[in-house]
Q: What sequence folds into this?
C-alpha cells in the first residue's frame, strides 16, 4: 500500500466573512487578492510538498481549480513541473487535469510529457471533468463535458503512443499536425488515476480503462457501493478488481493533544469548507450531470466534495439560497457539521493514538491500494500544518504500511490494475468489508 | 374549451412531437428555453380563430435530442424542413424568447417561409445595450422566478409552478436547460451573423417585450428593429419575460391586431 500527501493549497489571507457573505469560495471578488500573501503561500506549499517527501510519503498529490481561493492550484502543471525538478523519489500524482475545461488536449499532452521527463518517470496523471463552477469560469459548455472528457483522454493517449505526424478531426477537437516531440519518459505513457466524488459513470469508465479510482472523502457506505460497482464492471470485462484499483483520500489533521487537533480541524469548515466550494447556481450547470448522477447525488444528504450534495440539489430546485445571514449562527452550524462528518469517518482528527485506529478502520472497509492524507484547510499556520504531517508520518504511517501488508493491500505499482484475470462463471473476490460499518452505526 | 392534442409528425425520418389545438388557419408557435408549459389562457383565446401548432423542441423530453443539431441555426433548419414537408408555408409564427431566435434564423434563411412574424422577448441578437441574463448561472428556482415581474400577481405562473417542485419537474427543467446550454452556451443565446442575414425584405414583424423583463433587455428589441427594416415594437407595461401569461388580455389584443392587419 502507498501513502500520499495532498493539500488544496488554500489562499490563507481571506477573511472568513467574505466567504460567508458570498455563501461560497467561488466568485469571491479578486479585489481581496494580495500578491504578497499568494507568493508566500505558493512558496510555502511547494516547500511543504518537498517536506512530505523528506517525511517518507510515497506520493504527493496536486489538484486544480479555477477562480477559487479554496485552492491555489489554478495551473497545477506549473507546480508539478517545479516539484518534478525539486523532488527526487516521490511520485507526483495529478488528481487531476480538468480536460473539458482546458479544451486543448494536445497542449496537455505536451505539458505532461515534459513533467514526466523532468521527473524521470515519476508522474501519475489523472483526469477530471472539472467542478461545475469551472464550466462557468472557462466558458466550457457543460452539456458537452462528458463527451469532451472522453475525446480529450482518447486523443492524449494517441498523441503519446502513435508515431506522428498525423491529422486529427474529432467532434470537439481538431488538429492539423499531431507530432509532439517531447513524449513521456514512461512507456507507453504515465499511469492514470482518476479521482471522483460519487459519479457512477466515472467509475464505469475507470473500470473499462482499468484505471484506479480515487474516492475523494465520500461517505464510506456509498463508497463501498461504488467499489462494488467497479468490481462488477471489471468482472464483466474478465478481470478481478482489487486494492490496486482503488484509492481513498480523506481530510486528516493531527496534533499532540486532542483539543489542539480539534481546534485546528475547525479550519476544515473555514468559510463553509468543502460544501461552500461554490454556490448552488455554480455547482450544477445545466447538462453537467446525467440524470442518474443527479439521482445519486440526491442520496448524499451530508457533507460532500465541491459543494455537490443532496442539500444543494434541493436548494437548486427551490432557490432557497436567498435570505439574511447570521455569521455566528452559520459558524456554529458548520462546526456541528464537522463533528457529524468526524463521526462518519469523512474527516479524521486527533492525536496519533486516536487517528491510527480510525484510518485502520477505513482501510479495513475500503481496502484501498493508496491512502492519501488531505491536509487541513483555512488559514492554519505553517507550524501547525507541518506538525500534523510529521506526527502522521512518524507515528501513524509506519503502522499503516504494516497494516496494509497484514490485510493484503497491494498498490497499483505492486500489481498492475486489471492484470488479474477472472474466468467466466467464477465469482469475484470481495473488494470491501462492510462489517465495521454496522458496528459504527454507518451504512 | 379547446382540446389540445399531442401528436407526432415525421420530419425526414425523425419524429417531432407537436401540440395541436384550435380551428382556422395555422399559427406556428415556438416555445421558450424552459419548454412548453401547457395550454394557457392565451392559447385558448388565440385558438378560437387559429389552429395552434406548437412543436416541442428536440431534447426537451417529448421529442428526443437530435445530435446533429449543434446550434440554433441547425434547429431552425430542422423546423424549416418540417414546415416545408408539411406544406404550411407561408405561415404566421410567434416565437417566445429562444423560440424567437429560432424564428429569426428561419426567416433569415428563407424570407418567404413566414407570412407574419411575432417575436416575443426575443433572443438571437447581441443586445445593442445591456446583456441577456445568464440564466444558466441561476438555480432552477431563481430562473423560473426571474421569468415574470411578479410571481404573486401572475396567477398562471402559480398554476404552472406552484407548490413544491417534483423530481419529475426538476428533471424536465434540467432537460430543457441542458439542451439550451448545448446549443446556446457560446455565443450565449445569439448568433453574430444573424443581423447581417436579416437584412433585405422580410415579412411584417412585430416585436413584443414586457417593460419589466429581467432576462431579455430592450437592447435586443432595438437590435431587431435595426436588423429588420420596417419591424414594429410594442411594450407591455409592467410585464416581465412572459407577457403572454402576465397580461394575457393585452398580449391577445396585440397579436390579433397584428395578425389581422
A:
Amino acid at each position: 500500500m502507498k501513502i500520499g500527501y495532498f493539500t488544496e493549497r488554500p489562499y490563507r489571507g481571506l477573511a472568513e466573512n467574505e466567504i460567508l457573505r458570498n455563501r461560497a469560495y467561488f466568485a469571491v471578488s479578486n479585489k481581496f487578492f494580495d500578491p504578497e500573501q499568494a507568493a508566500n503561500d505558493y512558496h510555502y506549499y511547494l516547500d511543504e510538498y518537498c517536506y512530505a517527501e523528506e517525511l517518507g510519503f510515497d506520493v504527493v498529490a496536486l489538484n486544480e481549480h479555477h477562480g477559487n481561493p479554496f485552492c491555489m492550484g489554478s495551473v497545477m502543471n506549473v507546480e508539478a513541473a517545479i516539484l518534478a525538478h525539486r523532488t527526487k523519489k516521490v511520485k507526483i500524482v495529478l488528481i487531476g487535469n480538468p480536460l473539458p475545461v482546458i479544451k486543448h488536449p494536445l497542449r496537455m499532452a505536451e505539458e505532461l510529457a515534459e513533467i514526466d521527463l523532468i521527473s524521470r518517470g515519476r508522474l501519475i496523471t489523472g483526469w477530471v471533468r472539472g467542478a461545475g463552477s469551472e464550466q462557468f469560469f472557462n466558458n466550457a459548455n457543460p452539456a458537452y463535458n462528458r463527451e469532451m472528457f472522453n475525446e480529450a483522454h482518447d486523443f492524449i493517449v494517441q498523441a503519446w503512443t502513435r508515431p506522428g505526424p498525423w491529422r486529427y478531426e474529432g467532434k470537439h477537437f481538431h488538429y492539423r499536425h499531431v507530432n509532439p516531440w517531447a513524449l513521456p519518459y514512461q512507456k507507453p505513457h504515465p499511469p492514470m488515476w482518476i479521482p471522483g466524488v460519487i459519479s457512477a459513470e466515472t467509475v464505469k469508465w475507470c473500470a473499462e480503462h482499468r484505471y484506479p479510482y480515487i474516492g475523494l472523502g465520500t461517505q464510506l457506505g456509498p463508497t463501498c457501493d461504488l467499489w462494488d460497482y467497479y468490481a462488477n464492471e471489471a468482472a464483466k470485462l474478465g478481470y478481478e478488481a482489487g486494492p490496486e484499483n482503488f484509492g481513498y483520500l480523506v481530510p486528516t489533521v493531527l496534533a499532540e493533544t486532542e483539543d489542539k487537533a480539534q481546534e485546528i480541524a475547525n479550519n476544515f469548515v473555514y468559510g463553509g469548507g468543502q460544501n461552500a466550494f461554490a454556490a448552488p447556481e455554480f455547482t450544477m450547470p445545466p447538462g453537467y450531470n446525467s440524470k442518474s448522477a443527479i439521482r445519486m447525488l440526491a442520496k448524499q444528504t451530508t457533507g460532500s466534495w465541491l459543494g455537490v450534495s443532496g442539500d444543494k440539489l434541493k436548494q437548486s430546485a427551490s432557490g432557497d439560497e436567498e435570505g439574511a445571514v447570521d455569521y455566528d449562527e452559520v459558524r456554529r452550524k458548520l462546526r456541528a457539521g464537522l463533528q457529524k462528518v468526524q463521526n462518519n469517518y469523512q474527516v479524521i482528527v486527533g492525536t496519533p493514538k486516536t487517528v491510527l485506529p480510525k484510518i485502520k478502520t477505513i482501510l479495513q472497509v475500503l481496502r484501498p491500494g493508496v491512502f492519501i492524507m488531505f491536509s487541513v484547510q483555512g488559514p492554519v499556520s505553517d507550524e501547525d500544518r507541518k506538525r500534523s504531517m510529521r506526527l502522521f508520518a512518524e507515528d501513524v504511517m509506519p503502522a499503516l504500511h504494516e497494516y496494509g501488508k497484514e490485510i493484503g493491500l497491494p498498490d497499483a505499482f505492486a500489481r498492475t490494475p486489471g492484470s488479474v484475470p477472472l474466468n467466466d462463471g467464477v465469482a469475484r473476490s470481495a473488494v470491501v468489508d462492510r462489517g465495521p460499518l454496522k458496528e459504527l452505526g454507518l451504512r | 374549451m379547446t382540446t389540445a392534442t399531442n401528436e407526432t409528425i415525421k420530419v425526414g425520418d425523425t419524429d417531432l412531437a407537436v401540440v395541436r389545438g384550435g380551428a382556422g388557419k395555422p399559427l406556428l408557435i415556438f416555445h421558450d428555453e424552459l419548454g412548453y408549459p401547457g395550454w394557457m389562457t392565451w392559447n385558448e383565446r388565440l385558438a378560437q380563430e387559429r389552429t395552434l401548432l406548437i412543436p416541442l423542441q428536440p431534447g426537451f423530453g417529448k421529442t428526443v435530442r437530435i445530435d446533429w443539431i449543434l446550434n440554433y441555426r441547425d434547429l431552425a433548419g430542422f423546423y424549416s424542413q418540417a414546415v416545408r414537408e408539411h406544406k404550411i408555408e407561408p405561415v404566421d409564427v410567434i416565437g417566445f424568447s429562444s423560440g424567437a431566435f429560432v424564428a429569426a434564423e428561419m426567416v433569415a434563411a428563407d424570407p418567404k417561409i413566414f407570412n407574419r412574424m411575432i417575436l416575443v422577448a426575443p433572443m438571437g441578437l447581441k443586445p445593442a445595450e445591456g446583456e441577456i441574463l445568464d440564466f444558466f448561472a441561476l438555480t432552477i428556482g431563481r430562473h423560473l422566478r426571474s421569468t415574470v415581474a411578479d410571481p404573486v400577481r401572475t396567477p398562471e405562473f402559480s398554476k404552472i409552478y406552484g407548490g413544491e417542485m417534483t423530481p419529475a419537474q426538476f428533471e424536465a427543467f434540467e432537460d430543457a436547460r441542458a439542451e439550451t446550454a448545448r446549443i446556446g452556451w457560446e455565443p450565449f443565446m445569439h448568433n453574430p451573423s444573424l443581423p447581417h442575414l436579416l437584412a433585405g425584405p422580410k415579412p411584417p414583424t412585430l416585436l413584443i417585450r414586457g417593460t419589466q423583463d429581467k432576462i431579455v433587455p430592450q437592447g435586443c428589441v432595438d437590435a431587431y428593429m435595426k436588423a429588420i427594416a420596417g419591424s414594429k415594437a410594442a411594450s407591455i407595461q409592467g410585464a416581465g419575460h412572459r407577457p403572454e401569461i402576465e397580461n394575457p388580455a393585452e398580449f391577445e389584443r396585440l397579436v390579433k391586431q397584428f395578425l389581422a392587419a
